[in-house]
Structure formats: C-alpha cells, structure tokens
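Appendix B, record 7
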Amino acid sequence: MRISLRKHPLCPKSLGSQKQRSVFIMGRNFADQQVINLSSVRQEKIEEKRRAYERVVFQSSFGVYTYMEATGLNAIELIDISEGGMQFQTPQRSNLSLNVGDTIPVRLYFANDHFISVDVKVVRSFTAVEDGRAIHRYGCLMDKSMSSYGAFFHFVQFITKCAEHGHKDDKHLRVYY
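Structure tokens (predicted):
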C-alpha cells in the first residue's frame, strides 16, 4: 500500500519544491514521498479545541455596557460573542481597566432603559493598536449559572442564524427624515 501526502489536504503546496532525498525504511524507497512538519497543523487543531463554541463577529446598534461602582456605566465595543464567552474592547483612555480574573456585569441594552445582564470573567487582556488608536481588548467567559444566561444563549443562537442566513443590503436601505 502506498500513501502519498502530496494530495493530502493538510499537505502544504510548497512541498513539491523541496529537495528530494532517498529514504529507505525496511528496504522500501520512500524518495518520492514528502515529510511534513505537523507542528503548524497541530497548532491549528489546538486553537480549534481551545474554543468550545463558534464565535460570531458582532457589529450591532445595541448598546453594550458594563457597570462598576467606581466608574459607573462604561460603554464597551463587542467584537465577537459565543455561547460561552465574548470579546470586547475599550479605548485605552477609558476609565475601565480590567485584569485577568476580574468578574464584571455586561449589560446588553435592547431599548433606552431596558437591558439584560450577565456576569463575565476576564480570561485574556491585552493592549493593541488598531487603525492608529490604542485599545484594550478583553476575552471573557460568561457565568452560565445566572438566570439571565438563557436570554444571552438564545440571543447568540439568533445572531448565529442571522449570520448564517442573512443578506447584506447595499442598495435598498434608505433613511428618510
């Protein structure tokens, strides 16, 4: 039985240009076969397993805030959301400064004075520069034991289906005043 990795979907296309050498194993010549470094494939699989849920890139007109006694209501920009967590960012100059391990309430306002809230625990925190501005990004896990988690769960399922089946309207949307 002969196995060729050249046609394998995980085999990089650049392998054909690598120098060939004779390799004999148990009397068989494997010179026409390729050796693949699986570390990059392994790293991709690790990243896939790290995320228990698919994350949906989230851009909306909902108001998303967190409330802290010391700083009050702070606007945050939700980057993505999944059934298990979310990623959000704030400007570097924001009053909101969080550390890994902090637990905060995140409020999703669906009207001017009505919101649902779920506690999230910060598991990743870093500063980045995006479009020439410094931002703080936070990766968080949701507290699934809260009674409001069910609403967030269904909200995430809804926007996932919208992302799956929705269409972008570039021509027909008009606002008349």
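Remarks on this record: The helical segments are 39-50, 149-165. The radius of gyration is 24 Å.
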